[in-house]
């Protein structure tokens, strides 16, 4: 997950913030029904309510990926991607993401220790012993790459976010290098059309229905859809090509019943149409949506251990019933929002301010051979 205020905080995309907040809340509902929680309640609910409310909540993750692609494309829209710029950009993103992540690690380990003591079980978060190597790997976002299990299952998305930033910067750098010989449109086509087609091979052929990965390539199409939606919104990309690409992915999603793919395409198209209508800054601008957008990252990072404790205590005190399910669900959401707000205020908000003190090198967009100002020929 990422925040809309990255490079130029003059414009706040309230619609994107709201989508991010709603997606985070959807993920919370998904995790609430795992591990046989809410079974009594779900038996009473018709499937047309139960499925979209709880079972499909993991589809909040592709929402995050598409939004990240859109927002990062916006932050890099005028950048010349060279080594000094990339170093400062990467430092800025790490400062933005890491303090609340570290706080969530502390919370996760503390609650896991308490749960192990209460249940008289070994202290093994997510079924693996805590070691110095595992802890250090978490600090640099590579735990799954080197074979460790996440302390908190939601952490798998963070490493992919960082990989997607690096890969996009590398692709943009190559495209800008080609602009010494080709027009801007042609340079970007040479780089991004093959990349987009290669990325599409995963959801279409190699890994249809894949909902998570250790490396970004199988899911990079989702991030790219957000990037392309931004470029089309800025009239720097051919919308016909974007619609064709989205349509092909949508068809594959229907064929393979792949919710991740379908959600990625739907959100990208929604962003483009809302952007073309000039509503990204105004739609869903209400205070409740703004609050959810603000705390979404901290809520996402911290909700699973807190929810586990609330349900454990609720079932111990009141027993298992549909009424207990409702009470535990509402109580856990309230507690998770409260903790998310605290982490946002004391860790994430200062991290945002700190990240903005990292100045990106002054640069002007690379001029193409044809001196064209957009990607559309």
Query: Helix-strand pattern, N to C?
Result: HHHHHHHHHHHHH
Catalogue the unreliable spans: 2-9, 370-377
- Percent in helix: 55-70%
Count of helical segments?
13
**CA gyration radius, whole angstroms:** 21 Å
Give the oligomeric state.
single chain
Strand proportion, as a percent range, falls in under 5%
Major β-sheet, in short? none
Q: Which of globular, elongated, flat, extended, rod-shaped describes the shape?
A: globular
Broad structural category = mainly alpha
Distance between the termini: 33 Å
Number of domains: 1
Got a strand count?
A: 0
Average residue pLDDT: 92
What's this model, at a glance?
With 377 residues, this protein is mainly α. It contains 13 helices and no strands.
Structure description:
Helix content is 68%, strand content 0%. With 377 residues, the chain is mainly alpha-helical. It has one domain (14-355). It starts with 13 loop residues before the first helix and ends in a 22-residue tail after the last helix.
């Amino acid at each position: 997950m990422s925040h809309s205020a990255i490079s130029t905080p003059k414009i706040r995309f309230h619609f994107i913030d709201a989508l991010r907040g709603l997606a985070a809340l959807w993920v919370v509902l998904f995790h609430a029904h795992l591990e046989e929680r809410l079974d009594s309640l779900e038996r009473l609910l018709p499937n047309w309510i139960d499925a979209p409310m709880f079972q499909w909540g993991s589809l909040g993750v592709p929402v995050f990926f598409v939004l990240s692609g859109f927002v990062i494309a916006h932050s890099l829209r005028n950048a010349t991607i060279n080594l000094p710029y990339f170093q400062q950009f990467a430092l800025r993103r790490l400062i933005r993401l890491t303090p609340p992540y570290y706080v969530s690690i502390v919370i996760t380990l503390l609650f896991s220790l308490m749960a192990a003591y209460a249940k008289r079980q070994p202290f093994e978060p997510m079924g693996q012993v805590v070691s110095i190597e595992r802890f250090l790997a978490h600090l640099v976002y590579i735990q799954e790459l080197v074979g460790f299990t996440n302390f908190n299952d939601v952490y798998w998305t963070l490493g992919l976010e960082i990989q997607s930033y690096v890969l996009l910067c590398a692709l943009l750098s190559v495209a800008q290098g080609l602009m010494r010989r080709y027009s801007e449109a042609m340079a970007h086509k040479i780089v991004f059309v093959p990349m987009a087609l290669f990325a599409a091979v995963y959801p279409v052929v190699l890994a249809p229905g894949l909902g998570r990965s250790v490396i970004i390539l199988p899911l990079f199409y989702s991030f790219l859809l957000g990037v392309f939606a931004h470029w089309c919104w800025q009239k720097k990309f051919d919308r016909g090509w974007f619609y064709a690409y989205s349509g092909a992915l949508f068809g594959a999603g229907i064929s393979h019943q792949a919710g991740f793919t379908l959600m990625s395409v739907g959100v990208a198209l929604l962003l483009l149409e809302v952007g073309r209508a000039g509503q990204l800054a105004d739609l869903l601008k209400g205070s409740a949506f703004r609050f959810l957008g603000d705390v979404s990252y901290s809520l996402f990072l911290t909700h699973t251990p807190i929810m586990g404790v609330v349900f454990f205590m609720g079932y111990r005190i009141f027993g298992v019933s549909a009424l207990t399910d409702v009470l535990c669900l509402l109580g856990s959401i309230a507690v998770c929002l409260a903790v998310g707000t605290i982490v946002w205020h004391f860790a994430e908000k200062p991290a945002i301010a700190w990240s903005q003190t990292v100045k990106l090198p002054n640069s002007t967009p690379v001029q193409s051979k044809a001196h064209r100002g957009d990607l559309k020929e």
